[in-house]
Amino acid sequence: MQKKQISIQVGLALAGTLAFPIMAQEQLQGLVLEEVMVTAQKRSESSQDVPISVQAFGAQTLEQLGATEVMDLSRSAPSLSVGGVPGNIQQMGIRGVVDYSRNVGINARMGVYIDGVYQGRSASANQPLLGLESVEVLRGPQGTLFGKNTVSGAINLNTRKASDEFTGEVTAGGGNEGYWTGSGYVNGPFTDQLFGSISASKQHRDGYYRNTVTDKDFGDWDQQGTRGQLRWLPSDPLEIILAGDYAKTDSDLPISTRATDKPFEATKGIRENNTVEFWGTSATVNYMMANDYEFTSISAYRHTKSELLSDESFSAAASMISFVDEKSSQISQELRLVSPLEGDYDWVAGLYFFDTSPDDVSTDRNITFAPSFLGAASGNIAIPSTASTTSYSAYIHGNYRFANSLELTAGIRGTLEDQEFDFTQINTPDNPDIVGPGYPGLAFEAGDLSYKAKNSDTAVSPTVGINYTPTDDVLLYAKYARGNQSGGWNGDYRTTGLDRIQFDPESVDAYEAGLKSTMFDGQLRFNTDVFVQEYDDFQVFQLLNVNGQPIQELTNAGQATSQGVEMETIWLPTDALQLTFNGTYLDATYDKFPNPGIEFDPNAKAYDGNDLAYAPEWKLFAAAEFVQPLSSLGDLTFHVDYSYQAHSFGNAANRKEIEGIPSFELWNARITFRPTSEQWQAQLYVDNIADEEYIVNHYENTIFRFDRVYWGAPRFYGANFTYYF
């Protein structure tokens, strides 16, 4: 407790220094509000001019936050929620609508895009923030312009375009727990018409968990990534961009520990491992026609591979070992025509194709029961399965101006999707001569199974809204949008045969009104919105007690509503001081959830009125940044930020003692020195100053029925040095 009090005092003392400039401000170049260009409407526009609830982060802001991957933005973007375990089973969502593609038969609700290319699986959602120009968090359903499976929102990552200006930088750093990092970025011309860029990074941290079996530390973490781009301008109207990226995360961090264990201690009989690897290529062609219409073609291929090996028994004997893996390949093609902005109207129209064939999405996942748990019935259950999706869609979205200040927005997208699913459950006993076929699964009523199915689905996603700009610096908007989420199959271990293996699509009707404004000669930016999202056939994971056996399934809960208020504020009271405050108030609950477990368990209750998982009522973020000139030496920048997350739950049942995630708050700080030459910079940082012990996930183990947790990161500190050339 004493070290926490000291850390809090240090953080408050640092925050206090930000309010007292000690040198003349006229020596400063001065802070300005960063203007971030976004592509939320398929054209490059200022985020302040887009009638969409979007929180945009420019390269400068990402550096200030020290964010290196998408999940790092969940503190400063309060509407972005993160649950589960980083890596293979990471859960991410927006406005309290959170899930993940748990198996090959399930798609996630939030879309992640790199330069317009959709990342089809949850394992690749936590993209590295490397070589980027901006990141856009688009809140609410984005069905018209982005398609199905964006019913909670979308995240756009926009990379830096290669240019004719030679620039580069290299960064090296280190910190506690054996942390080290290195990264670099180079951009420049090959000829007058051909430019290239490449960025790369690598990070490592030693394990900070203690294995109570071996009494040794474990949980090493490694991450590497690279992005490259060739940009060719063969003529004035034509631009061709070839891009590629690769990333890999390899971690021995435990996927969870028993809730009764001390923080960062675990009983593990094996070395767990969580690996995610993905790469992709794309070819983008932009052609500006003589009448200022722009044609764009984006052709892409992506591949993702993930593996998770875990000890589910939390015992020295490693009585139950789970192996979860997935491979997926996809191709996509988008053709788009964008009109000029001049005149009374503008529009964008496009065709889109997405296909996971011929490699499909596949898994060989299995679970092994040792004799120490099942005795002679020990053995392995495997569920080798595949799923494939082919999707076609067409869309048009436009704006019509009744007057200079009044505009109508409308759009519609139609989608046809074909899906196939091939599921097998195979039991292999260690000693078939003793127990016969069907074991070990028959001990849990999980016998051998085989299932194949096809499904076709159509969806229409309209949008309509009204926009009012009383001045150049104020935008008021109101809109309605409908989104759709694909149905699918529960490709998990089946203890109830093939009952409820298939689930239905879900849909959402969303209503939103917002304000975007810049005031006081560019010193204050204030954006806010209110929203109501009504979901039908809401898809939700839950733990069912079926004939005494626990199973985890995705079912259609019925109806759910996510509603609330969002706000982002940036204020420059002086040229030397920037203050930021972002906040989200959220009320996300099940309106109608009869809970299918009632038919198997008389003690089960309906979940009507329960909170959605990972949907805290409040999330807040505040930051202060102060620039202090040091005479002719350069500038010293102080940054401190604070984040708060209210109590939430890790499951629909909302059992506080088993699934409750207590509220927590975090303090972070950075001090950066850059000399007058701006040739280099040095930075010191501390994350989680108070060394807060907090959990980000809490749920019940399906077989052994004890609750387990995943701990948030402890205090990390270190230093970085960057050289610019």
Question: Could you give a quick summary of the protein structure above?
Answer:
The chain has six helices and 47 strands. It is mainly beta.
What does this structure look like?
By secondary structure, the chain is mainly beta. The chain has one domain: Beta Barrel (Maltoporin, Chain A). The protein contains six helices and 47 strands. The strands form nine sheets. The chain has a 25-stranded antiparallel β-sheet that branches. A hairpin with a 2-residue loop joins strand 7 and strand 8.
List the topology elements.
Blueprint: H1 2-17, E1 37-38, E2 45-46, E3 54-58, H2 59-65, E4 80-84, E5 90-94, E6 97-99, E7 110-114, E8 117-119, E9 132-139, H3 143-146, E10 153-159, E11 167-175, E12 179-189, E13 194-205, E14 209-211, E15 216-218, E16 221-235, E17 238-251, E18 257-258, E19 265-266, E20 273-288, E21 294-311, E22 320-338, E23 345-355, E24 361-363, E25 366-369, H4 371-374, E26 379-382, E27 385-403, E28 406-429, H5 432-435, E29 449-471, E30 474-485, E31 488-489, E32 502-503, E33 506-519, E34 524-536, E35 539-546, E36 549-556, E37 559-574, E38 577-592, E39 618-629, E40 634-645, E41 648-649, H6 656-659, E42 660-661, E43 664-675, E44 680-687, E45 695-700, E46 707-711, E47 716-724
Parallel strand pairs: 7-10, 14-19
Antiparallel strand pairs: 1-2, 3-9, 4-5, 5-6, 7-8, 9-10, 11-12, 11-47, 12-13, 13-16, 14-15, 16-17, 17-20, 18-46, 20-21, 21-22, 22-23, 22-24, 22-25, 23-27, 24-27, 25-26, 26-28, 27-28, 28-29, 29-30, 30-33, 31-32, 33-34, 34-37, 35-36, 37-38, 38-39, 39-40, 40-43, 41-42, 43-44, 44-47, 45-46
